Batch of 3 targets.
Target 1
Amino acid sequence: MAAREQRSLFGEILDWMLAPLLLLWPMSVALTWLVAQNIANRPYDRELGVMVRVIARQAASESLTAANPPDATRRHLEQAATQLLRPDDNDSLFFQVRGTRGELVAGDADLPLPADTSPSVEPRFRDDIIRDEPVRVAYLWAGDEAGGNGALIQLAETVDKRSRLATEIIKGVILPQFVILPVAVLLVWLALARGIRPLSDLQQRIRQRDSTDLSPIEERHVPEEVAPLVGAINDLLGRLDQSIAAQRHFLADAAHQLKTPLAGLRTQAELAERELDSGHGDTLSMKHSLQQIALSSQRAAHMVNQLLAMARAEDKEQALRKQDVDLAAIVVETVRDFVPKAMEKRIDLGYEGPEPEDAGARLWGQPVLVREMVRNLVDNALQYTPAGGTVTARVMPDPFGQVLVLQVEDTGPGIAPAEREVVFQPFYRALGTDVDGSGLGLAIVQEIANVHGAEVTVTDAELRPGSPHGTPGALFTVRFPLRGDDPAEP
């Protein structure tokens, strides 16, 4: 899939500001043209209206009846019109007078009749065409109210002067816009450049930071619109700082924990080498050194395996690969694997719960991590349970609580209430015990539970025969949400 082209915030804002401006400018020109036409028509229409009234009064003073010869009427009206209408070099004038029956009394016969035939005291105006030329026509139906006996008086003028005046008006409005528009674009550009300058300053401040500086970014000098983004970055930096601090602490503890078995390996190897060089080495001392070397290597291997398990539990990508898991089958398999160790320590290790393949003992999770959790819980119980004790692993479906419960119970020394929270921290070991371990088992359990949205609790186990000194032992309970309640369910 092709990478999405990176967009410029400056360019996008500029586009959204200039695009409407460039779109509105032609609309402004069109509206200006219409307004200019209206403005140019007003004085010339007023003049046409005055002249058509004069001709109407002249026509009203003439007798349009049969007693007055038509030729004499025509001659009188044309003389009056000639004196009134003074054509210039730009426009031509036409007039027409028609009688009450629509007969032509005087003027040009080419003028078309208007569609409106109702009597009117005030002149009316329309646009028309005479001899293929556009004209502006003023007309008046002089009825009885006006003393004109229904005569039609029309006066037409070509529109050259009007067009010229409209053009001059448009030039007066549009030409300044050609100067103002580039200036406006330049001002918008400068305003945007100044407006996003704080972003550039913020970028420089972040770039100049040292890679180890995870302190919050100062929010007082950033724009209000960017403040939520800076706040989110500061929150991320805070969480990253905590994560890095936890990793450093973890690595320091891991190095310290690994140093002990590795130092033991080196010490035993040097001791065996000196004995061989001195010639005083015997079979028993060599066997003891080899046993110590094997024990130290076993501790180191166990520590490395636990560190790898912790890394797997923290791997988010691994956690996303979930599937249907048979918890009962995993617990039964784990108990079988630890039977030899339980027999060696004379511990009664057992399982209680549904058989494998039972539909009620299934959860939605990562099988490798779930298996690692069960192994760490069972191994931890066997480590702290003395000889003759009991360790029980249980699976208990709870459809009403919408959970699947895993329990590991032992008859060991138990965990004091004050320590039940801290035992899940990496490398923590309960005080007063001489058990050899890495201190990572329960931390891995907690991490895997978090990945699955499960809840881990530790309480006192039920006091039973075999508990040393009357101590109840520890009961670890993990409540897995059923698949429908899993927030990571696809």
Note: The CA atoms of residues 320 and 488 lie 8 Å apart.
Target 2
Amino acid sequence: MTVDHAGVVTLVNAMAADLLPEVAPGVDLAACRVPALADAAAAGSDAFETEHHGRRLRGLRRPLARSAWYVRDVTEEHARTDALLAERSRTAFLAEAGSRLGLSLHREQTLRTAVTLPVPYLADAAVVVHRPPPPAEDQPHWIRYATGDPGPVTGLAGWHTVESVPGLVEALEGDLTEPSPWLDAELADLAEVLPAGFGRPGTVLISPMPSAGGPAGALVLARRRERPGFDKREIGLAREFAGRAGAALAAAELYGEQAHLARVLQNSLLPPALPRLPGMTLAGGYRAAGDSLRIGGDFYDLFPTGDGGLFALGDVCGKGVGAAVLTGRVRQSLQTLRLVEQRPRELLELLNRALLDAPDAARRAQFTTLLLGALRREPDGGLLIRVAGGGHPAPLVVRAGGGVETIRVGGMPVGALTDARFADAEVRLAPGDLLLAYTDGVTEARGGPTEPAMFGDARLRQALATGTGLPPAALVDRVLQLVDEWLDGQPHDDIAMLAVAAG
């Protein structure tokens, strides 16, 4: 359409007439009934954009002999732009949700993330209603975060509250029907879980939080009355987010169960605190081979007897949890068998038979090297030790004068052969002497890049000789420190040590 120098419309083509039926030749453009166009003409502006009769219009003025306005329909262009921006926003939200939900494997942290992420993007307040894992009471709990809250708030919801909110019971039971907005929700129904002063919510959207193991909870999103309701795109986004949050919560619960089982296993398999035995001092040292559970195949144990004690130190073949399971079996067997036999060599023979008689012994093909030592106090303050060997490195005796002796006992690994043979030897410790039993993780520890050789027998004997006179605990710590320094952070085998001294 064209306009003369006085601002009066002189020509309107068919397209302009269709888009702007209020504008006709002879109309003063600054006074026309299209406010945005009239304002632009009055202000001398060269452009305008407006919603008119359900269309998005954009106009540009170009100076000719007269002025000409080019008006076009940009409705679809705006719709595509809005859709693109909305999809980018949705993608960014889900990407952040996936990242933050995947970062935590702790249940409480996952719940906190599930309620903080939707606010304020999807709602003014978000609530997750869930049931805590056993042994907690079978009552629905909730966690909430709302605009203005310093942090998430938790509480216990009564079943009457859950049942009074339409759709909440169904969501907790895993109803996967398409969620729909709940309009004009009454404050009384949600007052228990919404923040004080929130007022009556305008729109509430409830979505189940499904997971592979069953419903993990329900996500409740509430908007204030002055905010528009949920559109179809937002409903789909809320459902997808609820699904991801449910999967993350289930993963966190599974991780929690596994961590609990790991702690129970670890506590049952870690070397025990050594009991105090009259007339003697003992100390143990332990390092697992880099296993996150701190359990492995090396072990030691000590059982009090009527005239002293019985110690065991062994090395089960393998590493990690598999070796730790056999370690537990060996320790439990010794705990039982020592009630009927306390002579070291004979006890090794019984243990060998017990391990080979296990139902899965042939399939497992696992064995252990082992030292058993019977400790007996003597009237002069010394200590008599009878040691039996099952294919284990020989123990060392550090004399008070600084000498280091090897107690050769030999023997064959326990649980490997039905006709295995075992040997024993006797050694006496005078006051000031010390016996050290150790696993091959000590001598076979390989150094860092600058020292790839093994720690070896010679370095161990030198460490013991220079530690003469140290109490058992201090000597064990010294050897562990030297081995750690030698390793220089390199991977290593399991390590166990047990030191015994008279006094």
Note: The chain has a mean pLDDT of 85.
Target 3
Amino acid sequence: MSQAFINRATVVVFAVLLLFASNSAVTHAEDKPNFIVIYCDNLGYGDIGCFGSTQHRTPHIDRMAAEGLKLTSFYVSSGVCTPSRASLMTGCYPRRVNLHESAKGGIVLRPVGQRGLHPDEITIAEVLKQQGYATACIGKWHLGDQPQFLPTRQGFDRYFGIPYSDDMTQRPGQPWPPLPLMEGEKVIEAPVDRNTLTKRYTEAAVEFIEQNRDRPFFLYLPHAMPGSTREPFASEAFSGKSANGAYGDSVEEIDWSTGEILKSLKELGLDERTMVVWTSDNGAPRRNPPQGSNQPLGGWGYTTQEGGMRVPCIVRQPGTVPAGAVSDELCTTMDLLPTFAKLSGGSAPENRIIDGKDIAPILVGDDGATSPHEAFYYYQRGQLQAVRSGKWKLHLALPKPRRQKQPRKMALYDVATDLGETTDLADEHPGIVKKLQRLAETAREDLGDEGHPGKNQRAAGHEPHPTPRELTQQ
């Protein structure tokens, strides 16, 4: 046998093995679903057509709901930005990770702040990276603007966006830096043109999807809009086009953005391999004149009423999530981490308490699937204000409720039917009241309450000497 024949045979065998390994890798990648979370800012329960809006044109989001699942009792863990986002990232209540308020006691983190998401926390991005996922955060972060708190240090391969809210701009009495747009850990534009954010985020999101079409990916797309200003922003193509002023313009541009992402998935053949979750970080806040809508829920964003913390949610993955389905089972953003971990073939962190639960049976439409939550807790900053179990929600008696001027008496509501929280049933159901009070005591011991630390809280990240994120002169 000649040496040349042996060499040719070796090459052939190596090529066959390489092809087998390549095919195995592709098959393995195709077994893992992609995940996209589209997270709006301050958008209300009633702000999109499929959840009842008659003001805003949202055909792409409405079609997404028709092709997927509507979750009508889906909650964020807070009525404001930072704590809500901390829960999505970590699967934990904000008090668990001590991001229920800023280092100065503020309701959210502000620019050049000392506090941020602790680098030792395990984020949803880090869980998925362990399973071989490419990860990107494109949009508003708001979990700390110091380098050690940025998305690039929390499991994301790419970050493109603003590090905090769109309203945190230079003004008298607030010597903040010009609102920065960041690529990775570098400021590339300041002040950013807020009118272009939704468009640019969408372009970056589609680019990330295209670049990672051959491997599993996790895209976190936290929009800056409708945002925290009294005049939300939209690009020229949408400005002045809606029936609800600047607010409606921004909502309709987010609908366009959603359509672009879904179109990209379909064109790339990723439609059935990608689970898309569309929701909001909290309810629409009160404005005068009104802008957003939380109807038919009672209350506004920034509160612990249903309108503050119950948000619209749509989940779509053709062939996996049943089309045209609706579930009123209680689910939360905290559930995404353990659910995505399971669906990716991994598991949630086991060396710490995770408050979220696996809701995959609900998402895929298993017969008889019910909420895994015995209780859900409504916190206003560090104060426990209400608890829900099943259909019952108990507003706790509070002598000094946060964000309210008058003492609040105890009240019990059936929030499965009384969405506006209008009819107090406490006197009719004393046994239910006692049950929910016991659950509240469990939360106080575990997570804490106003003036009382919980035994299972963890530390937030702390930077004693924060510096601003500024545009470096070249």
Note: The two ends are 66 Å apart (CA to CA).
